[in-house]
Batch of 2 targets.
Target 1
Amino acid sequence: AQSVAQPEDQVNVAEGNPLTVKCTYSVSGNPYLFWYVQYPNRGLQFLLKYITGDNLVKGSYGFEAEFNKSQTSFHLKKPSALVSDSALYFCAVSLNTGFQKLVFGTGTRLLVSP
Amino acid sequence: DAGVIQSPRHEVTEMGQEVTLRCKPISGHNSLFWYRQTMMRGLELLIYFNNNVPIDDSGMPEDRFSAKMPNASFSTLKIQPSEPRDSAVYFCASSLAGLVNEQFFGPGTRLTVL
């Protein structure tokens, strides 16, 4: 079965430090991978996606993600965290069903302290 | 662009009552998704439509739940009769059809069933 795993329920980082939110996937065929962010009392917002090509994908708000096929990972990164980055982050994989159907991870809460 | 519009934003009802949630997707998008988010189960896909046709409703919890999409600009999710365990935040999302296209989420409807 195709799935994604986010092994950390919460990640704590100090403002200005680099951050990493982890995601691993299990799919058959080529994976299409996504990161979304959810701020309190809001819907999910798209951050970035990997389709093909360069393994380092750049997205919104200074975030980037590195696709690693051998480790089946798609970790979200940012060189310097901001307090305003504190939110819930979801990794997702698109199922190869012919129609777009995303399977989401359980989410990782990022807490950036001043 | 107004984004995905959901109404109502909050709904409080009593057990046994009928609840109808509404969604207006982004104009031009031909895929629509209904999700439910709870602390216990995270983000669950309930049903999705492509070109107004339900493609996969395997996530609908039981017969008390039904969804319709009478035209490209409107969808409803109905719960009848409602139960306390239906309390959750319900999100509608839309996208262009295709495995690589990101979904755009509405602000959600917070449903409380007493």
Target 2
Amino acid sequence: QQQVKQSPQSLIVQKGGISIINCAYENTAFDYFPWYQQFPGKGPALLIAIRPDVSEKKEGRFTISFNKSAKQFSLHIMDSQPGDSATYFCAASMGDDKIIFGKGTRLHILP
Amino acid sequence: DAGITQSPRHKVTETGTPVTLRCHQTENHRYMYWYRQDPGHGLRLIHYSYGVKDTDKGEVSDGYSVSRSKTEDFLLTLESATSSQTSVYFCAISKGGSQPQHFGDGTRLSIL
């Protein structure tokens, strides 16, 4: 299975709250899991990425949690800010030069 | 920002006409990709290139062709555009392997 399933489709969070986006995959050959952030009118931009040999990676307010046995990974945005309002895509790759993207989550942070 | 330029940024055309979109990079990356983005479908790979004159199909390649005669340019052609090809098209570049892809700002294509 080449799919990456992402949820929720849309998310509304109060300023200062925690935003959580979840993804699941089937193919255990995936070895690279990036998250992309996209603002309206712009292309997706790499936000943070993880490999399956670690369970967590943190960069500033953004954290990826990775559960290899459950084949799930998630993005946590701490202290969410209105500027974080964007569409977020999880993705997976197996080193074959192609990336499989989830369908995206539209995040809106209320001021 | 990675040096990726997509042209045109916006285009409106009629069904049955040929359309060519251009992606130009200044990063000398080996890999280049064309995606389409549609509501509810996320990003879907159309074609990609792993070197000059080396291309391969992606998930949604029907109705599209590509060419790469120089490292820096990757062209996407719709030989006879259909309304179902109305979409936002993104070009991406990468060094290859499990390396990040860097995206251009897209071309919004409307086919009437």
